Structures are given as C-alpha cells and as structure tokens.
Amino acid sequence: MRDLNGPTLPRRSRRTAALLTTGAAVTATLLGVSSVPANAAPTAAAAGRSARTAAAPDISVANVKAHLAQLQSIANANGGNRAHGRSGYKASIDYVKGKLDAAGFTTTVQQFTSNGATGYNLIADWPGGDAGHVVFAGSHLDSVSRGAGINDNGSGSAGILEVALTVAKQGYKPDKHLRFAWWGAEELGLVGSQNYVRQLPAAERQKIDAYLNFDMIGSPNPGYFVYDDDPQLEGVFKDYFAGKNIPTEIETEGDGRSDHAPFKNAGVRVGGLFSGADYTKSASQAAKWGGTAGQPFDRCYHSSCDTTANINDTALDNNSDAIAHAVWTLSGGSTTPPGGGKVFESTSALDIPDAGAAVESPVTVGGVTGNAPSALKVGVDIRHSYRGDLVVDLVGPSGKTYRLKDASSNDSAADVVATYTVNASGEHADGTWKLRVQDVAAQDTGRINGWKLTF
C-alpha cells in the first residue's frame, strides 16, 4: 500500500447513505447495469441466478502461504526486496505468470517506465464468460525497497493468485468474464494501475462491471475493513463476513492510497478489503477482532521486518475466502467438469536422465467428442531430488506444446506433484498426448511416476 506521506488524492469524504446510493445509481447508469441498495430484496432474475450459481470453494490458506514463501525466497535472492525496477520484482512477475500460464489463463505483460526504470503489470484473463461484463480483481505486486513486502502486498497478490488458480482447478465456467491483475510501481504512486486505466479505451472500461482491490489482507494485528465506494460491492463482502460472525468496519484511511483509485476516477465501480497498515488498533477494535489495542495493525509496514513472519494466518484465510466469495457471487456460473470428467492415465514409470535429452510419456485418448476443453486438467506425479532442474510440457495430438513448468534456480524443493490446467481448446481431444520432461542441469535424478488427463 502506498504511503500517505507522499502526494495523494484527497481523503475520502464521509457521505450519507443516500448520497452513496445516488452516486452508485449514476455510475451504474453510465455502465449500463442496474443499481440496487445492498439491503434490497433480490429481484426474480437475481434469485434465479443465485439458485444456479456455484458456491465459492474454500481457498487453501496453505497454498496462499506457499506463494508467500516463494515471494520471500525471491526477495532473499534479490537484495531483500521486490521493488519496482529491481530484479526481485521481475522475478515475482515471472513466478505469478508461470503459475497462471500453467493453469490455462491468457496472460499479458504490460510494460511502462517510471523513475527511469521499466515496470510491469501482469494481466490474466480466464477463457470464457461474457466479455461485455467483466469482473476484475487486482493487487499490487511490488514492495518498497526496504523489505520483502510480504503483507504489503504479497498477501493480496498471493490471495488473488490462489483464487485464480482455484477457478482453474474447479473448471469454473463464469457467466461473466474474469480478469485478474498484478500491478507494478504502486508504491511509487499507483503508477502501474494508472498506466493500465489510461491506456484502456473508454468502451473497454465500460465493460468492467466491478474492480475489486486487495492490498494487505494478512496484517499481524488485523482488522476487517471493507471499501465503501459502492454499496452493492460493499454488501457482497459484508454479507460474507456476517455469515462468519466477523464484524467489519468501513475502510477510512483515505482514497487514492491503492490501485482502485484510477478505476474509480474512470467511472468503474470499485470495492475491496484491507486488514490495516500503520494506524493504531483501538480498544473497541481489539474487543471485537482480538489482537492488541494501542499497537499498529501492521507494525512492520514498509519495513524490513515485513516477512513471512509478519502474517496473521486467520486473517489471510478469511480474506482469501472472501475474495473467492466475491468473484463467484459477482460472476455467476457453474463448475460442471469439462468433458464429463473422463480420465485417461499412464501409470508406467519412466526415468528422467540427468542433464540429458527430454523423455516423453504417452497417453492415448479416445471416445471424447470434439475438441479438448479450455480447462483440461493435467495431473503430474514426478519424483526428482531438485525440481528446479525440470522443464515440463504437455504435447497435444497436433504436436503443439503447452508449457506446464519452467526450470528455476529459485525452486530447490523435491518432486513435482501437481495438477495443471491448460487451455487446449484448439486440439482435437482424441489422439496421443504426451508428457515431456527434461532435466536441464546436472547432479540430480528422478522419474515420471505417472500422469493423467481429465476432460
């Protein structure tokens, strides 16, 4: 989150409920969507929609923390931070992009220049959904130069990454189009998100039904703050937390402090969550949320101690689940398994030569009509003493390759046991598919235990 000690937009004025509702109605009219107070009874159409909409799945906080551990490792290997213009930021972008590409997202890296250095935004679109109605979730990925930035804002970045990956794992088919973004140079003044919004044609801005921002969601002395910029979006989050018996407060630390501001200024409806930064938790807040009164929500805000030790697991879990709830609720859709869930599997073990040629394990698919799905599941069981040496590809019947995993010197763990999601909709389903694995460095060995395709 951007520090308010620098130039900012004016602090949010406190509006009456009537003014908030009126403002939402004006914005909704401009965007061609209806505006209804958050506490209004659902319309018949909305009730029918909710009856068939899949409930949001639980988001694995262990997986979110695993992403944070990777961001910490990246910072450790790159001068202790992931700041704009530094190698740690580019490595962070590469990590997130690799995960999304393997899951079947269409990713775009947008470059910009700030303070004489190249910055990067990463945009990820999930195939399908009505492109005229976009549900958009974002967070900034950069840290300040003084530390790894694990709460600010590894937490929001990891949360929406795992929500996006869960979309793929679930084979989710949203009615609306889903888009996710990781912004650069937020800490320098919302540079990345401003650059994106400035370059977005007005017609494309009007297709965004909602932009949701997540900047700091795992503060160690946490609060549960909800943006009040749009009553309907505010209601989605407040309803979720009310169902968990978690009280919320309106986020009042000031507009213009994070990446929702450029969207709001462009007329897009915005919402989001925040667990607190350098402000002090009051006695009444500690009474309802726990934690320590008289101490900051995040004592390591913009400091070198903002590491993986600076995270409250419960807040991270609750807020990650709330992100998923909002994405599923606002986009509608179903999770019917693509292709009816047919599984084709190889259980034949195949050795992977050390620093040698690629090996291929085949699976023959038959009896599946038409093309492969846009969310083809590829389950991989590879045993290897140093998985960072491995490059893993899926090869379709046409010979086209789909990269599942790149080699990485930052990935020193053992084994690759994972399920990837691939957009293989350009391939005929029937035919011979291959898992191609190559060990590109010396000293470590392994084998393919088996793998499977789920259609």
From TrEMBL:
Keywords: Disulfide bond, Hydrolase, Metal-binding, Protease, Secreted, Signal, Zinc. CDD domains: M28_SGAP_like (cd03876). InterPro entries: Galactose-bd-like_sf (IPR008979), M28_fam (IPR045175), M28_SGAP-like (IPR041756), P_dom (IPR002884), Peptidase_M28 (IPR007484). Residues 336-455 form the P/Homo B domain. Residues 1-40 form the signal peptide. It holds the Pfam family P_proprotein. GO terms for biological process: proteolysis. Gene3D superfamilies: Galactose-binding domain-like (2.60.120.260), Zn peptidases (3.40.630.10). One of its GO terms (cellular component) is extracellular region. Its main location: secreted. Its cofactor is Zn(2+). The keyword Disulfide bond applies. It is found in: Secreted. GO terms for molecular function: aminopeptidase activity; metal ion binding; metalloexopeptidase activity; serine-type endopeptidase activity. Monomer. Belongs to the peptidase M28 family. M28A subfamily. This is P/Homo B domain-containing protein.
